[in-house]
Design goal:
The structure holds 2 protein chains of 2 kinds. The longest helix of chain A is centred in the C-terminal third of the chain and has 44 residues, at 249-292. Chain A is built from 10 helices and 7 strands. By secondary structure, chain A is mainly α. By secondary structure, chain B is mainly α. Chain B is rod-shaped. Chain B has one domain (15-79): Up-down Bundle (F1FO ATP Synthase). Chain B is built from 2 helices and no strands. The chains are: A mainly alpha, B mainly alpha. At the A-B interface, helix 3, helix 9 and helix 10 of A face helix 2 of B.
Amino acid sequence: MTKDGTLKICKKLIICGLICLFSMSSLQRAYASDASEGEGFNPGDMINHHIKDAHGWEITHGVVVPLPIILYSEPDGLMIFSSSNFFNNVHEEVAYKGYLLSHEHISRVDGQPVYDFSITKNVLFIFIDATIMLLVFFAIARGYKKNVGKAPKGVQSLFEPVIIYIRDEVVKPSIGDNYQKYLPYLLTLFFFIWFGNLLGLIPGAANMTGNIAITAVLALGTFFITNFSGKRAYWSHIFWTPGVPWWLRPIILPVELIGVLTKPVSLMVRLFVSITAGHIVVLSLVSLTFIFHSWMVGFGSTVIVTLITIIELLVATIQAYVFTMFTSLYIGMAVEEHH
Amino acid sequence: MLMDMQFAVMGAGIGAGLVAIGAGIGIGQIGGSAMEAMARQPEAFGKIQTAMLVIAALVEVIALFGVVVCFLIYTAGTAAT
């Protein structure tokens, strides 16, 4: 067989494989059984359930991995127990030791405030993301130690172009000579967001980077790094903007201060919205099948969902790249020498 | 459904459609000028394509703000009934 012939067959096999993979997502099979019980299918509830955080990891309908609940309240102090205690045999919500879990919100039966530090689905996925990153990067480091002077092999050769691209095309041009100081954080940021976005696309996984609290912390990281490494030129540009008449500068001051805030806020909202909306679109198209109860709609919806999930893979990478690029740009603007 | 909620949900639908128009126009213009630039200078194909995808992602995010808001209105509308 010619090289062109095998290439064509490989492409067809990959496309068939992807369609099979996404059409057999447990989502479609799981909710097929729901249509017959009780009330009709409510797409809003289903989508909300998949987008939001949860105290147990529901891998598929009925297979729930209970996660630890960690609570602090004034009367009881620190309480740690499994989230399966909140449900009885027939999977109804019951109160446990004076606490109630309702719609993923934990409250005390007597109404006093309770602070929820539980390991929820998203926290679990932060740990999974961190574990994957540690495994990958220690493997790459071992590869570099073993292959000194030789060509890269294995995991090392998969990630080396990506790392070098981030270093040479994103970080070095923005920050300039001092880039070594910020490169570890920016690489960690890129890979955390990239792996987090990709993990979120697996059926049954958590919408981790689509949680505004997580993106807020990532944006806070950018905020603190830019403002703590800001040089005199950076702060003088904000408080005493050069190039404008002196009487205009106090008017520009609040605008510049808002500018300091809007940059991280835009980072936070951009990542949250693109990932969450991507998931909402995919879930809405999947729920078309269950609204119409039709095989033809099911077939069409599967094809469209496959294509859109492939686009979401691209969006996952682009949003990680954009977050890292803007962060390095803001750091570069902060550490720029006066010219 | 309550009459007010019907209008709220209808508003969400119309909003999502309008948001799509904005995204369509924006990304269409980006794609158009990218095509033109690639035709003028085929050697720069790779760089132009990368820049086009990145900017399209930024414009798309603004449209997605609207999608998420409309989705929240829809869930609030159906939940209030």
